[in-house]
Design a protein that fits this description.
The chain is mainly alpha-helical. The chain has helices at about 10-30, 40-60. It has a domain at about 10-25 and about 40-60.
């Protein structure tokens, strides 16, 4: 296995940063009801699923 450098962020911190990044992406996507394309809808659903997965990983680490 590869060792992480000592000054690297913890796995929980990495997950929190990833979740914040995904949140920012959701805000970037202009998702008005009735005005979203199919690709936007799929993208939003994929981001939300990834965020739910990250949240479950964070809850497991508590």
């Amino acid at each position: 296995m590869n060792k992480q450098p000592q000054n690297s962020a913890s796995w929980s911190d990495t997950l929190k940063i990833r979740k914040a990044h995904l949140n920012a992406l959701l805000k970037t996507i202009d998702a008005r009801p009735g005005k979203t394309s199919q690709i936007q809808t799929l993208t939003i659903n994929a981001i939300k699923a990834e965020m739910a997965h990250i949240e479950s990983q964070l809850n497991r680490r508590k």
